[in-house]
Amino acid sequence: MKRVVVTGLGAVTSVGLSAKDTFSSLVAGISGVSEISKFDTTDFKTKIAAEIKKFDPSDWDIPPKDAKRMDLFSLYSMAAAKEAIDDSGLNTSDITGEKSGISIGTGFGGITTVENEKEKILKNGASRTSPFFVPMMIPNIAAGNISIKYGIKGVQYSPNAACASGSMAIVHAFDAIRNGYADIMIAGGAEAPITPLCISGFSNMKALSTKNETPTQASAPFDKNRDGFVAGEGAGILILESLEHAEKRGARVYGEICGYGISSDSYHITQPDPEGEGALRSMSMAFKMAEVPVAKLGYINAHGSATEINDRVESLAIKKLLGGHTANVLVNSSKSMMGHLLGAAGAVEALITLSTIYKGTVHPTLNLVEPGFGCTLNYVKDKFIEKDICYGLSNSFGFGGVNISLLFSRCLCIKKS
Q1: Among 172, 245, 258, 303, which one carries the catalytic annotation?
Q2: 307 near 207, Cβ under 8 Å?
Q3: What pLDDT shows up at residue 380?
């Protein structure tokens, strides 16, 4: 089977409007959490989120006419895709055709459009619903819009795996290249869930932080005073290529996807298996596929959502995975600064994992002052750490009990530019 490498990165997040700026902000410990400005939060328990500020579609060559016909999650994916393609050095002619494909995951899809159009019906009647409502809100439209813009005629996937959707999209893209269906895949996730319905829904199930007075301190993964996650928005896109294709064109390579693991807890609709059995299996499967011993792992970008049970269970599962190697593996959570991007989280965090092993810099986990009960790993706190890392793991877990782990390595066969 073909080996798969990553040659381009693109991101739009609350801490940066590019992959480079996002990673730099995380290394510097800059939080993107603030008071919600998208709607009136007077009656809401949670009034904070990791919003993207100053996003202008025209900065990514998206014409105003087209932008009006796209939901925000789709616009974010278009922006991140453009950056990733440009970053990869691929020309438009390189990705046009049947040997290029696309895989974009999302949890909520066009929820912003759904809420806006519902308001129109309530206020003005059914005749006022936009004729673009359906093609704006369907979950596969992010992949569709990118495919149309760049002439991508190969395989197209739009997986929904809750908060693991972005990771699932990367899995599909990886398999497409490994099995010979494509030479190039545009893969990632996008989400725009900072809406009244989403925030109230998560808030009423007591999943969100209510530290409204101190927004930048609200997301505290693994800390004993954590009180829930902070919703975030954005997109992360990776350009995947077969190693052969990347070598042939002399591409700069960020790293190689070595393997993945997918499992189901089969336990509860929202809570993880308290023994971390499902998470342990997904991580173990990634190493088995890669034929790499766990002892070689140097870094884990944890799911680290800042909810009490998820952080504790993930820590337990990681401890079981590592055995006596816990002291040698650095662990952090990107959600401490950019919030939980839900369906886009796995893609953005995969991008961050690749950037970490490529640059040899592990960003800190903001707001981690004193680890909570059961959180006994080698967490990166206070400031970034420089470390030579060969293998990095990215975890994504979602409602319904889905667990996905992606294992990356520095592609040692190709020199960094």
Answers
A1: 303
A2: yes
A3: 98
Burial 128-149, CB ≥16 within 10 A → b, else e: eeeeebebbbbbbbbbbbbbeb
Q: Amino acid identity, residue 329?
A: V
Q: Are 217 and 223 in contact (CB under 8 A)?
A: no
- The pLDDT of residue 285: 98
Give the residue ranges of the chain where pLDDT is below 50.
413-417
Q: Is 413 a catalytic residue?
A: no
CA terminus-to-terminus distance, the chain? 26
Mean pLDDT of the chain, nearest integer:
96
pLDDT, position 413: 45
What is the number of other CB atoms lying within 10 angstroms of the CB of residue 178?
A: 16
H/E segment holding residue 300: strand 299-301
For every residue of 315-375, DSSP letters joined together read: HHHHHHHHGGGGGG-EEE-THHHH-B-GGGHHHHHHHHHHHHHHHTEE---TT-SSB-TT-
Please say if 245 is a catalytic residue.
Answer: no
